[in-house]
Request: fold
Amino acid sequence: MKKKYIGAGTALIVTASIMAGCGGNSSPQASSPAASQAPASSSASESASTGSDKPFAGQTVTLVTANHPWSEAITPLLPEFEAATGIKVKVENYFEDQLTQKLTVQFTAGSETPDVFMYRPLQDGQLFFKNGWVARLDDYAHKDPEYDFADISPSAINTTTIDGKLAGIPIITERGVLYYRKDLLEQANIPVPTTMDELVEAAKKLHNPGSEMYGFVARGQRSPLVTQLASYIFSEGGDFITDGKASINTPEAVKAMTTYGNLLKDSGPPGVLNMSWPQAFGIFAQGKVAFLTDADSLYTNATDPEKSTVSDKVGFALFPAGAAGSKPVNVTAWSLSINERSKNKDAAWELIQWATSKENVLKAQQKGNPGARTSVWNNPEATKSFPEELVPIIKQSMENGVGHDRPVVVSVGEARDAVGEVVMKVITGDKDVQAAADKANANLQAIIDKDSKR
Amino acid sequence: MGYNWINRNLKWLYILPALVFVLVMMLFPIGYTLWISFYEWSMSAITPPAFVGFDNYTSMFKDERFLDSVFNTFYFTIVALAAEMVLGLAIAVLFNRTFKGKNIAKTLFLLPMVATPVAMGLVWMLIYEPTIGAANTILKSIGLEPQLYLASMTQVIPSLIVVDVWQWTPMVALILMAGLSTLPTDPYESADVDGASAWQKFVHITLPLLKPTIIIALMLRLIDVLKTFDIIYATTQGGPNFKSETLNIYGYVLGFQYFKLGSASALLVIFFLIVMALTLVLIWTKKRLEAEG
Reply:
């Protein structure tokens, strides 16, 4: 009998560990708002005596960030904010996937913390907003004229706006660009590709698997590839969803997915199917690949001599033009927002306003974090650390770019898997891409339909 | 009066901590999982869970991805388990003899078991890297074709099995070594007198005597292999193209990436029943063997 319980117990623990993630979080969290509430109420009398200078002195704001260079740039500056406002900031830091899970679980449990959190508007935005977890920031954003909300790029704001309401303040923006090896192109006497056809051609020419040199690399994992595939689809004139209907089986989208898959199949290194951006940048940085398409915000992975053996040979180009021209993604990768249930919304906004002020966006951008403020982009100081030729490409991509990079639905994870399947079929050599696209389109439509019922 | 009450209920008081633990940490979660599995709930604060009866279960059996993950789970489990048992037994027998440097060899051999699976997953990911990884560098240096390993839809599960075998064979060997050290010596002595060969002694004496221990090792590993999560998640997350997606990984994806908690719970309940059934079969086999012996 005893052994039976070992079996039952182990299986139970499997189950329990999943469930523990749901329930467990609420209890430790419940205590912290209580702790932060106490000083909040006492601060009312306190602020009267200190005057309007530090109206939130004594309050505690919990900030949850992703493990991202932006957090590394801002966290050391927090003591300045604490000194200036008297607000105490508690920072928690998570890897991006864990961050989404943590926030989802915590919000579902109705937690009052965190007050301020970092999130991916395109991945989590719909889910968070439609569930009423994020506060509407419209009134806050226009409160202080000195904050100069209009200075934040409208396309970046567009990404964080849902149903006409501002759900987050953009902190990191990124665009799809073409990375290439200057030396290899020069040697082979190939001009930098400006169209998709030229890229395919050049990648083929530089592909020489016998000597371990490959023409092209990009993400090949089913779900991660979707955000990079987006630039291909837009440049051919397609989109994931058009007028509320799934549209990944249109001729434009099918052409784009075929091009992307074939580039990886015919000119890619071995093992692309298990590559997300770290692996793709890894092999590019090892000097084994001529072309790479991915987000510009990751450029240090290719140009930092500590990470890359070809740091001084990397060139940047505008995303190659397809039938509809060069239309790379131009999105807000990360933004900050306030928990709808937060007890300290005003203090929380104070923190966001400080972190996204012109001054601090400049400081973060100087450390390689492409931000969303136009004035900062126009300031030569801000882009000093960026590779020189990347800056005009970023500015041009901001003008041509499209403001989303994945199907904008509530169940983004499911939708990405649906879209990614078509590219999988191309890479594995399936001839009937249209049939795969039709099937994926039906799956995506089902996901959209389910959204509308929420 | 208080004293008397304690005295009368002493037996309950003693088991109370264990009872509370089982109720709170085991029975409640499993009951809750069962309850959610009859609802459709996407962790939405606005749409409450909707009762759907057995829909989550019936749709599960129409879901190709679920059926594939059942196949992957069993493929992974059966091959890994067989390899671990055979290798584990061989190594246990080897370490049961005395030879020079045995203790050092034993310690080194047990090291993989102590390593953190996620960290080992990352290390193996580097080893398996097709272009610059160690595995292919070795293959190329001896003139063999480089392989894709984790990036190949057909090699991914065998590659993961190698990792699991590398990490967990030591545990099987450890259990079997303990079993071997308790075996009586007289059957071997009489076999020597009768002139039995080493192989005959192994097949006719060691194996039958070791059977109960083997079954315990088998059962412990079976449960562990079935629910392997860490090394798969750390290396492939179920890819490429879901080809290494086991039940546990799919359950995680359903629950925490798609936020379909009803479906995820239904999957876990099915998974629970599978583990339970297999364990009961093993226990029953063990009892029968013991009755025979």
Observations:
- Confidence is low (pLDDT under 50) at residues 1-51 of chain A.
